[in-house]
Amino acid sequence: MNKNYPYYSHEKMIDLRQLLETNLKLAKDEIAFIYKDPSLKTISKTNKMFYEEVINLSNYLYQKYTSKHIAIIAENSYNWIVFFYAIVISGNVAVIIDKDLEPERIEKLLNISDTKDIICTQTYASSIDLKKYKVTYLEDIDKFIKEGKKLTNKAKLDPDNPAVIFFTSGTTGFNKAVVLSQKNICADLYGAASIFKPYGTAFAPLPFHHAFGLITAVLKPYYYRVPVFINSSLKRVLPELQEAKPNTLFVVPAFIETFYKQIWHTARRTKQEKKLKIGIKISNILLKCHIDLRNKLFSSLLDQFGGNLSYIICGGAPLETKYVKWFRSIGIEILNGYGITECSPVVSVNRNNYGCDGSVGQICRDVEVKIIDNEICIKGDIVMLGYYKDKKATAEVIKDGIFYTGDYGYVNKDGFLFITGRKKNIIILSNGENISPEVIEAKLAEDNAVSEVIVASQDNHLIAYIYPSENYLQNQEYFDNLIAKYNKKVPKNHQIAKAVLRTTEFKKNNNRKILRDRIMEE
Amino acid sequence: MKDKVITIISSTTGIAKENITENANLLTDLELESLDVVTLVAELEKEVGKEIPDKDIKEFQTVGDVIKYLEDNA
Questions:
Q1: B2-72 adopts what CATH topology?
Q2: Are A235 and B45 an interchain contact pair (Cβ–Cβ within 8 Å)?
Q3: pTM, to two decimals
Q4: CA distance A247 to A506
């Protein structure tokens, strides 16, 4: 920690029940959650209301299920969160499943995690073989809460016991069941909350089946005791941002890229493109002179995000620095972070007033990062219990209590973490040289003509597969020159043999990560 | 409906109308991102005055799929 930027102070929680009780004690009448009901009417729930609903539902679940794995397969909603919380504090394990997976895949994940009990919405019931599982409909929550009022929950919570199972969605398509305890989650809340602080409503549009979408975008603001606005649908992100007027938004890079694209598209359509470009230039010059007129220069743009948006917390995939700089020019700070489901999930994030472009921020409190043979390794209470019933896979990544992330990186002298590549993407040339393709890709991507780039090896040479930006499609000469210029600046073993231009984007997984394994097949 | 859908796709994405055919794949031919498709659906909802459930969005592969869906659910 840099002594000029002390940690934000927070109470450490033992488990989620203590968090629930603390929020009741300290802020019972303050708004905890805001959401839209099915008729799109805005509903607010105070900490007291949330507490009572969770406790009553946990009473009901405790009487119906003992140490069971209970899957949640449903769209994001307030009731989703109430169910999740109640499952955990009734001593059961919440198994979090992506509702949009095909039925065969859902069944596979239910089998992997030994899950027979399911909470789902009517909408997603068709994805489940109703004869094989005990299904409870999320829409019936009020009935269960009412019944729970007459019941008690005597679950003895052990913070070290399994509480949640998330499934990783790697680029290989192979899912692993990550088991997290309440201690893991509470360590994550404390560690990340100590280095970043929101100053108003948080907006949560990410799917809850990702640790980032649930633990970071929902549980963290709840821990901070700021309201969380639950986005009802990706279709309504912009109108709901305007209604919620959030201070902080939690997203993956795809959102930022879409916002950026939409802003420029609107500017072109309304013939404001030139004005916007000039405005940004002026703003950047003034900022260098410590004059900040961004609120005035870009008020109509900022109003589209509700007018109060100060921070966008971005994680889940790499984000090009150009977006960080551009949004800063108009008055919104993107704070890049780094997390991995196995670490509950946040390892590092840029701080409110202490950031470094290109980095993924400062290491969270009580988290130890060790760089072993260039690999980022993590020690601390955020490290998962293991992969469910997969000792071999667990032993491959956790050795002597240290989690090996499979990501390469380094920490600079000021304590900022930088990611340089994925271990599994490393190219080993015949001379034994190890090349991290992401480092080369990041350099090439700095050129505006490069929309997407993947570096791979072929016959012991490096090839840059490039999907050009709109105005550079099929302009082989431009890219040959770009590669020649790049090659002059780097050592021989980093030089590119040729640029292969594509006419279509690379195939990506659901998280917008490029499927590298498919490059050679295409 | 066809003209209406093509006009909305064009105004939402900036793609010229003549490049938007019924057979065009939204992701590979029109090069839309999944979030672009969601934005497009939001615009279509406004135009046709009917909600398109999130679950149905993943069925939209081509421009023709969108037209057919709106005709069938008009």
A1: 1.10.1200
A2: yes
A3: 0.85
A4: 34
